[in-house]
Amino acid sequence: MARAGQDSTRRLKSNRKRKQSSTQWLERQLNDPYVKRAKADGYRSRAAYKLIELDERFDLLKRATRVVDLGIAPGGWAQVVRKLAPRAGIVGIDLLETEPLDGVTILQMDFMDDKAPGLLTAALDGPPDLVLSDMAANTVGHKQTDHLRTMALVEAGAWFAIENLAPGGAFVAKVLAGGTDTELLALLKSHFRSVKHAKPPASRKGSSEWYVVAEGFKGRSAPDDVAPVIAAQADQTKKAG
């Protein structure tokens, strides 16, 4: 605890070998209350509270029996699912290595690999009723390109959900720039009874991330005028990347 009259914000001593951006990130981590809470509560990342807060608003985990966690590393969301829906089957995937979690099947591979969807569904004893996606593409420093690459992952996650969710299921995904692209939003609205955006308090104020929450999965047959548009946009995105 800081002494009276002193600034309680922790600051790092200057280091010529450390980049200014790295110093700012470290200071932000040291002073972030969610980082401190995560350590105290045993969560692997502050992102756990984003799902907790989304669940408090949308009641996503109450009836969850089979959950797919796209972009599982380091495992914070899966930990929340295990705590709030202890009987649910959980399978996660990430290109990064993720430390094992009790009761969670983890696949270390690229979600964009053609084999990934089949392996994910095979790990569950039935269709998932909740697909979570906290995926984001590695940034290259070009804002438009970074946005397109991340939204391509969101679209892939949406199609996975549409092709595999049980009726009534839900899809939750991180999106950028305050919302979901028009074509993707049309796709979700054609397959889900409710599609909303939310920015949980745990998301940093300066961050461009929001979450799209699609609930009440209606079925797998996409309208003929929607699917080609999404496919065309996905093709353009791949070329841009």
From TrEMBL:
Pfam families: FtsJ (PF01728). GO terms for biological process: methylation. This is Ribosomal RNA large subunit methyltransferase E. Keywords: Cytoplasm, Methyltransferase, rRNA processing, S-adenosyl-L-methionine, Transferase. It is an enzyme of class 2 (transferase). HAMAP family: RNA_methyltr_E. Residues 1-25 are annotated as: Disordered. Signal peptide: none annotated. It is found in: Cytoplasm. Specifically methylates the uridine in position 2552 of 23S rRNA at the 2'-O position of the ribose in the fully assembled 50S ribosomal subunit. Its EC number is 2.1.1.166. The keyword Chaperone does not apply. Belongs to the class I-like SAM-binding methyltransferase superfamily. RNA methyltransferase RlmE family. It catalyses: uridine(2552) in 23S rRNA + S-adenosyl-L-methionine = 2'-O-methyluridine(2552) in 23S rRNA + S-adenosyl-L-homocysteine + H(+). Its main location: cytoplasm. The active site is at 174 (proton acceptor). InterPro entries: RNA_methyltr_RlmE, RNA_MeTrfase_FtsJ_dom, rRNA-MeTfrase_E, SAM-dependent_MTases_sf. S-adenosyl-L-methionine binds at residues 75, 77, 94, 110, 134. Residues 43-217 form the Ribosomal RNA methyltransferase FtsJ domain. It comes from the Bacteria. GO terms for molecular function: methyltransferase activity.
